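User: quick one
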Amino acid sequence: MSVEANPTPAARASDQLICHCRQVTYETVRSAVRGAGVASLAEVQRETTACTRCFGCRFEVEGVLRDELGDRYVPATVVTRDPAADDGGTLRTRLRARVRGVRERVNTVPPQKMYMPVLQGFGGHDVSTRLVLFNLHDERTESGHAVSLRADLTRLDGRRQDVWSTTIAPKATTKLEVGDMAHEGSLPDGIGLVKLVLDAKSVGSLRPYFHLSSPGGVTSTHEKRGPRRPHVVAKRGYHWIFPVAPKPRPDEAWFFLINTQTAPIEGRRLVFRDENGAEKSVEVPQLELDQGACIPLHEHFASMRDGTGSGSVRLTPSVHVAGWIIRRDVEVDLWRVQHL
Amino acid sequence: MARSASLDAGRWLPTYGWWPHPERFQASVMISPYHSALESDGDARFATVVRGYAGSGTPVWEHDMGEQAMGEERVLTLSDLDVPPPPPEGAVVEVHTVRLDREPSTGVAAIGMWIDAVSPDGGGYIIPTQPIRGAQKVIARDDVQVVPGIIATDEVDTQLLLLNVIGESVEVRLVASSAEGLTQDSKPFTLTPYSAWHGSLRRTVPRVRRLLESSDGIGSLAIYSNHRLLPHFGFSRDGGPVGSLDHTAPIFAN
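Assistant: Done. Structure below.
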């Protein structure tokens, strides 16, 4: 999936954070590009430590590079942790980062990322998304602790639109209405995703679910975690599938997937195979880390819409994704969502 | 009726789901080899038996779906079976799929399949069947699971479904919690062996609407039981159809 240049990086306040993990400002990155001749994402990582933890600011950093360098900027095909920035890098790197404005010591533990789809007026429908985050407290072990996290609201192309941070006390439930984060036009076609970023040690007690609400009802399921080591391409022994049973009523169906690994997803297809062995397929767009796609299966496989089809839709060749099945009963405007 | 593949025989363990009353949902069991093998595993072969339980460990019906080669998709719509319907709250369906070409790579394992259900009024759910043991993730506690994001308002109610898939009665208690962590308990109740319990949060936990009033009707729920259950939850608006039925969150061992 191609990414447009961020239209307004230069308009960002100089003290505004571009990298929330490393507390690096826009100005620090701009200064590195202008003063130190930095011309690539990897060099920004090396010089500033920005974009070396969760990679959530990758497209914003690229926006600054594109804005400053114009045609001289060549986008990276894969974002990865720069070896020199890992573990804080060399003494020289750490000192240089401190001089250039990094506010706190580098956190060397990779964060845990959790992903959820966002439908907020998707396709013109009256549908909204609410995140519900429960911090479980195990009274037997008294292991409860407050969990601090950041929620990035992004477009499907990975461009971040808003950032929300909170701390959830043990036993507490926090909700976040995505409508309070998204502003007019921030999510093209009313669709995007939320990425939670938190310390791996906090994950054990956090249970994030989400609701999709429409006039017809409410549907819910949970987030999908990203891999602990997103740069390692995990082998999968089976396919993600979307099972399809015969339906007495017409409905619409989408396969929502997010790339949670640093390697791009490319050359994949969704293949609908029915009980008679007949197959049809649709191409999955190329997805880089943190980019998503919502593929309308009912537009490609007519028998899914009219309810006559039965079988499964598989993602092939097999690859790790965060994925959900989404269906909508057309007559009563009721959505159904289920994680894969 | 004898079990052709008991829980104690073989290393592929069965999985479970809800067998709803056909007047509420048309439920189909989806058997897809792609859910547990790659399309390149051309030699993979499967066999599946589907059974219904209603109150005891002896199945009230059994449907042998036979052998299935890689690439063969099968769908079994439960209402098409010539079997007596379950009680109004439904019962338990067991989906026991085994791979014939190999044993599990380590210990025991379960091959989950999917249930796709729709109701005449537009509701429905789609959910994988679950094992009671043999899951890949290690579960730290069998006695509690949680539902993050219950809703109890004038318009929306949380619908709970508890499946007991063991041969003993299970004592259950529900504890709803507000956004701030204040709690309200239900009265304890009992699930008989191999049965389903289906109920409304508002009717089961007294004063839950008042408990959640300060957080727009949103909170969480803990389900305590003396043996492990397979709980699910969904929502209905204005008494309308349930729009999903997801499983609850166990406490995994870290």
